[in-house]
Description:
This protein has a 3-stranded mixed beta sheet with strand order 2-1-3. The chain is an alpha+beta fold. The chain has 2 domains: 102 residues, no CATH class; 33 residues, no CATH class. The chain contains 5 helices and 3 strands; from the N terminus they run H-H-H-E-E-H-E-H. The protein is globular and about 55 Å long.
Amino acid sequence: MCQRKYSNSDILAIECEKGAIEAGHEVDYVSLKGKILSIVCLTFIRSGCCVLKDDIAEIMDKVKEAEVIVYASQIYYYEMCGQMKTLLDRLNPLYSSDYAFRDICMIATAAEDEESAFEKAELKGIVTGAGIANSNDALNYNDVMKKAYDLGRSL
Ligand SMILES: Cc1cc2nc3c(=O)[nH]c(=O)nc-3n(C[C@H](O)[C@H](O)[C@H](O)COP(=O)(O)O)c2cc1C
């Protein structure tokens, strides 16, 4: 979890920790507050090591060993906070590793209590381009290209 002192997400994460401990679990609470996380680079993804010395190695060891992960983040601009996104990016080398966790939970706090901030607008269409990675690849995905085109046509 991340950010300001006495934050809402902190409070909920600590409450969750309390419940987990009372249920008999061993909990390792990791706060991103004060942690230095560099942005991800390809060298890091390929080798799992970073030339920049920051706090990721220590966090990654804990995440790898954990059986359950509970992430907590405040919502910033309809998304997790940037520090949490950077953490998830930096954990990328774990994907192909023998990590222990199977369950992941998310705690998120947001100021809005409405279903949507844009009452007069509705979500009309989604186009997902899964599997598209390299530049220009999208051009080869005719089905996705057509969905994007059809969405445009339907507007
Ligand atoms: C920069 C910034 C962006 C925010 N964006 C959103 C948002 O998009 N939607 C929302 O509901 N609340 C938003 N909030 C409000 C926070 O999510 C809310 O206050 C939350 O409880 C803060 O958690 P914290 O105390 O752990 O920092 C934003 C707050 C800040 C400072």
